[in-house]
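step 3/5: co-fold with C6P
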Amino acid sequence: MSEFEHSPQRHASQVELVSGYDVERVRQAFPILAQRIYGKPLVYLDSAATSQKPQAVIDAMSRFFLAENANVHRGVHYLSVRATEAYEQARAKVQGFLNAERVEEIVFVRGTTEAINLVAQTYGKVHVQAGDEVLISAMEHHSNIVPWQMLCEQSGARLRVAPIDDAGELLLDQLERLIGPRTRLVAISHVSNVLGTVNPIRRIVELAHARGAPVLVDGAQAAPHLQVDVRELGCDFYALSGHKMYGPTGIGALYGRRELLEAMPPYQGGGDMILSVSFEKTLYNKPPYRFEAGTPNMAGAIGLGAAIDFLGELGAQAIAAHEQAVLAYAQRALATVPGLRLIGTAADKVGVLSFVLDDIHPHDIGTILDREGVAIRTGHHCAQPLMQRFGLAATARASLGCYSSERDIDALVAGLARVREMFR
Ligand code: C6P
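step 4/5: write tokens
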């Protein structure tokens, strides 16, 4: 037992009883988790930065390179046709995952960052003029701030910011007041990467649509944890990253409502985004190809498709129930650590636990935990304005995935005891 009240034994196996979810079996699907770090079992609590990859995703990608690799949409030969089918099948899997109405509404991109930049530089360029406004929130990741700042600088528009309270919840009445006749777009995270807060997207969409403003949702941190249904949310754009949802890096998706995508100019110029090119005039391809210039990340898309299959096999609800149980266990356990303050205590949140511990620098916490085999992220988490809102330069952040267990939390709490010992 650690120096704290927290007793690992007392809570053991509660999670399994709550959700009937076999986390040990889930862990076996992730070969990387079996290794030891500095002679200690790896405790991976950094899934919000990037998730680990199940064998099924690794296999799907190597199968592609071993047996299917060829350029897509370009060749008449067997492999090219096969690669094209696999790539387009992956698009259909993303469509199913998001419950989008049409497969043409899914654009493959590098990740959430590129998806948001794409919307800012296409939809935004057309619709946002001098004097207009783009509304974001105080809890956004830099990826959902900087592209809008750039657009505002280019267009002379104004960036407005909806505030949050001390728990890390959006102040909806203030957000509502900030949506005015000049609001051309509301861009908001579904889930905060620092606080774990789940934002009430449906309600925000209602408020924005009532004033004629479309809504882009940054779904980077929601897609791995929640059942996402873009039609139920009613949003106009939804961005996600493959690597945070057990897929590979370098691939992500932008959902855009068909009418909006069809009216948007291209993002980048090059191969595959055209119907015809002459030196006098180029005719652009239809969505989604209009937005996918150049040879795409084919293996990445196929890996993302395999990740979606993996998530589907586990079941979004089962994953959410499991992660909520581990989150509750972690909240109880961390409450026993003297001097620890959680940042982000929203009623509706996912398994992201940001904290500060006395006046110990988060980097020191991260470094000491690392030697115990415990991987967390420390720093500003690419959300500097949010850090400023809480008067902090940095936090330590432990984040959960479908493979996280009570044992990981026990190791974290034991590691924090070690941190405190070293700073006594
Ligand atoms: N957050 C984190 O440790 P990319 O890098 O494009 O895959 O995702 C960007 C991004 C956008 N929005 C949110 C809410 C995010 O959390 C992230 C990535 C990681 O929190 C890396 S900074």
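step 5/5: annotate
The chain has two domains: 8-34+315-422, 57-312.
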